[in-house]
Write a structure and sequence with these properties.
Elements lengths: L9 H52 L2 E5 L16 E9 L3 E6 L6 E2 L4 E7 L2 E4 L1 E2 L7 E2 L2 E6 L9 E11 L4 E4 L11 E5 L6 E3 L10
Parallel strand pairs: 3-6
Antiparallel strand pairs: 1-2, 1-9, 2-3, 2-4, 5-10, 6-9, 7-8, 10-11, 10-12, 12-13
């Protein structure tokens, strides 16, 4: 007696393929949005932790500490470090702010891919900042946040984070629209001048004033 072997018809197989393709098309954008959202959250947490650590170091060691944010391609800085990295150093205040030395054990930290620090409001320019290890030389100035020995900053400041990429050799940031809003959104992080406390504001389409 012959046994019947049951299988799937071509129509059934095609239906499964079509359904799988539809689900795949729906899932990829949602997954991408989730990853991007996590990247911004991680970036804000990283910066908040670094700000608190810099303030604590300044108070504990009775010195002036700056968080350096490389921008554009100053003195041939590698483009991969522009707008996306930061590092703390000790500075002096003598007719302006001047780089003294990198803090021992501190290295350049990088934000998650695709997140950039486009704006640093009320920051200060630190002169003679040595950035040889990231492809540059000693630059005339670098944008920084500075903490004094009493834990206070020179002024309340704000960081403006955005999704995008830096175009090497142009000094231009190509910002990217965010899913859902369809707009380029800036994520403001405000640092209190007296306490160093960070406050994350609502994302906005308005570029924070430099």
């Amino acid at each position: 007696m012959r046994k019947h072997v049951y299988g799937y018809t071509m129509v059934e197989i095609l239906m499964v393929i079509v359904i799988a393709a539809i689900l795949f098309g729906i899932g990829i954008p949602a997954f991408s949005t989730m990853i991007r959202g996590n990247a911004m959250t991680i970036s804000i947490r990283q910066l908040t932790a670094k700000i608190q650590a810099a303030r604590s170091y300044a108070v504990t060691n009775r010195c002036k500490v700056a968080i350096v944010f490389p921008a554009e391609e100053l003195a041939s800085v590698k483009s991969s470090f522009s707008y996306s990295t930061y590092r703390t150093c000790v500075v002096t205040e003598d007719s302006g702010w001047k780089f003294e030395s990198w803090i021992d054990g501190e290295e350049w930290k990088r934000l998650p891919t695709g997140v950039l620090i486009q704006i640093v409001t009320n920051g200060v320019n630190v002169t003679a900042c040595k950035i040889n290890d990231i492809g540059g030389t000693t630059v005339s100035f670098a944008r920084c946040l500075v903490f004094k020995p009493d834990g206070q900053m020179t002024a309340s400041s704000k960081l403006g984070l955005v999704y995008g990429r830096f175009v090497s050799g142009t000094g231009i940031i190509n910002t990217e629209k965010e899913s859902g809003s369809g707009n380029v959104l800036y994520h403001p992080v405000t640092i209190n001048q007296y306490t160093g406390k960070t406050t994350v504001g609502e994302a906005t389409t308005t570029v924070p004033a430099p």
